[in-house]
């Protein structure tokens, strides 16, 4: 079973850290805006979200947000359904998915780079 809260936290951290493309960043932006709206008036929940956005590499901040999401999903089935629908709109768009696949290239690259996932069929590289 996929841990929806963990998947969302990973995607939010990827968006905040700038490691996803523009389409993924837009999708994550919509999710974050929705979470901000849902957490309006809930300072602790909103704080966990904002801290996670400010410090996407901080494992404590990420786990705190995941805990908040899990708690809200357990207490409020409507929130859980909304979050699952929001995630279903994002995951197929390539922001993140259940496999936690990520392609990251950093530093100076000299030569060719190929990144792929779920290739069905042959790949031929040549000159």
Structure description:
- The structure is a single chain.
- By secondary structure, the chain is mostly helical.
- The protein is built from five helices and no strands.
- It starts with a helix and ends in a 37-residue tail after the last helix.
- Residues 92-100 have low confidence and may be disordered.
Order of helices and strands: HHHHH
How large is the radius of gyration? Answer: 17 Å
N→C terminal distance: 44 Å
Instruction: Tell me what portion of residues adopts beta-strand conformation.
Output: under 5%
Count of DSSP-assigned helices: 5
Instruction: Estimate the mean pLDDT confidence.
Output: 80
Q: Write down the oligomeric state.
A: single chain
Largest sheet report: none
- What is the 3D shape? elongated
Low-confidence stretches: 92-100
The structural class is mainly alpha
- Total beta-strand segments: 0
Helix content: 55-70%
SSE topology:
Layout: H1 4-16, H2 22-38, H3 43-54, H4 59-75, H5 77-90
Helix pairs in contact: 1-2, 1-4, 2-5, 3-4, 4-5
Briefly, what is this?
The protein has 127 residues and is mainly alpha-helical. Helices cover 57% and strands 0% of the residues.
Structural features:
single chain, 127 residues, mainly alpha
